[in-house]
Amino acid sequence: MKIETKVAKFTTALYLESGRILEPYELAYETYGSLDESKDNVVLVCHALTGSHHAAGLYEGDRKPGWWDGLIGDSKAIDTQKHFVICINVLGSCHGSTGPMSEAYPSMEPYRLKFPVVTVKDMIRAQKQLLSSLGIHHLKAIIGGSLGGMQALQFGVDYPNFADRIIAMAATYATRPWTIAFNKVATEAIRRDARFENGNYVKGAFVEEGLQGLAIGRIAGHISYLSPDSMDDKFGRNYVGTDGLFELFGRYEIERYMEYNTNNFSRVFDPMSYLYLAKAVNTFNLSRGYDSLHEAILRIKAETTLISFKGDYLFFPKEMEHIAHMMDRNSQDYSYHEMDSNYGHDAFLVEIKKFEKIVKEALQ
């Protein structure tokens, strides 16, 4: 599989939904496979909250492949022998695209909290600019899960003729209070950490020790990404063998797992980016800018595949089902699949075998 990683630089102004302007800006992206002469084999993959443009394959020296490697590659569901796949790092991220710790022109000091709030609409507008710069003006498909699924749906609403197929997983039509509440734990934990310094920390300050506020906030995120059944199956009530049961801070295996994963995460992900991307999730609402959700959904012309997961406690299946019911009433071209899964929200990353056939058939 041919893999290329690049950064696109733009000097033209990007007008944001908030009314503010971002200029200049950069987008990191990765491509897989080869572009046909007719440029009609392009599949855009959109990543989730803490994902990146590295969706598949291995970098030299790495042991862990891209986050959707099981789905993207030669002879896989998103077949890179047939399709030219592109994954673009969203605005606000810390993985190469312009975000709050990027240098603000002309001062060349980091934006920090002066960075504008970006929305899903802003993210896809920037991605469309990048694709246009590559001479790509129409897509075979757009696919993503969670925040990536939001982007896919937003593309379908805002640019009805841009893609033939939309495949959205584990997403929603508008972020509900339950999810916003989980994100609140993370944002408050970050803001109240003294080492956060109200955003005035030095770039890369947490590489060695991490930021405890982000680690604590990530625990709340992990709880929402899993499900009670998946925690039972993976950890049960097992206790850490080296900890005493009657030690006050002795741990169950689920506690040790949370500590290990969240502490590592807080070393590699920038807390400011987490705040901005969580805000983008919270503000997501397909109906914003339109008279109603019905009007927004009615704009979708692409064949649409909606996939939810039974054990998803972050974006419940009924939220995706609501979109399906509206499309059904509108006689739009869609299919809806609720996967029998007890894994939780992260099933779209983990249980690929359960939906890869659906994706493969949709792309055919």
Q: Please, how many helices?
A: 11
Task: Quote the beta fraction.
Answer: 15-25%
The succession of helices and strands, N to C, reads EEEEEEEEEEHEHEHHHHHHEHEHH
Tell me, what is the CATH class of the largest domain?
Answer: Alpha Beta
Quaternary structure type: single chain
Unreliable stretches, pLDDT < 50, 5 or more residues? none
Mean pLDDT score, rounded? 96
State the distance separating the first and last CA atoms: 20 Å
In helices, the fraction of residues equals 25-40%
- Tell me the total number of β-strands: 14
CATH fold-level label of the largest domain: Rossmann fold
Q: Cα-atom Rg, whole angstroms?
A: 20 Å
- Based on secondary structure, the structural category is alpha/beta
Task: Give the CATH architecture of the largest domain.
Answer: 3-Layer(aba) Sandwich
Shape: globular
In the CATH hierarchy, what is the superfamily of the largest domain?
A: Alpha/Beta hydrolase fold, catalytic domain
> What is the makeup of the main sheet?
8 strands, mixed
The largest sheet has its strands arranged as: 1-4-8-5-11-12-13-14
